[in-house]
Amino acid sequence: MELSEAIKGRRSIRKFKPDSVAKELLVDILEAGNWAPSAKNGHQWRFTVLTRKAKDDYNSMFRDTLDGFIKKHGRNEAGSAPGTLAIMEEAPVLVIVWNTNEYGWPSEEHSVAAAMQNICLRAYDLGLGSLWIGDVFYAYPETIEYFGKNWKLSGAISIGYPDTVGKVPKKKSLDEVAEFIE
Predict the structure, then answer these.
(1) Residue partners of 57: CB distance under 8 A and separation at least 6
(2) Comparing C-alpha atoms, which of 91, 84, 103 is closest to residue 42?
(3) Measured in whole angstroms, how far is the alpha carbon of residue 121 from the centre of its chain?
(4) Which terminal CB of the chain, N or C, has fewer other CB atoms within 10 Å?
(5) Rounded CA gap, 116 and 133, in Å?
(6) pTM for the complete prediction?
(7) pLDDT score, position 103
(8) Which residues of the chain have pLDDT under 70?
(9) Which residues contact 55 (CB under 8 A, 6 or more apart)?
(10) Domains assigned to the chain
């Protein structure tokens, strides 16, 4: 697959088949993430890959935390998080993405985002679907405590075989988003 095809063809997948994903494919996908550019070559990203019972246990903790949030703040304040949790439960793989923030530079967040993008593109290239998830921030301190990490939570990515084709998003034209100055 050409790179431009992967960039333009990758979609956010929100319905997954129950088929498990071979560990070899997951290693290949994470390797792509590990090849992302990083601030001062720090490789600030870390990945916690959850499948089967480990994924179910984490999602259970996330559900309990989200339910508590909804009871306190109301369903509307939870935004898309309940729907996202359903996707996390359905997908066979959930990758929790961390930032070691080794140097404390904002550019390290960009490094982790580049790794996440590489993961999503490689998953698509291998015939898998992915969803970049920010809603895990509804359980930010709980997730850090759950895993016993002293890193920053950057997000999560659900991975699996797509059960639907994602919508082609409406994109702004390049004229709307770029300017050329001489």
Answers:
(1) none
(2) 103
(3) 12
(4) C
(5) 10
(6) 0.93
(7) 65
(8) 102-104
(9) 88, 92, 93, 94
(10) 3-177 (3.40.109.10)
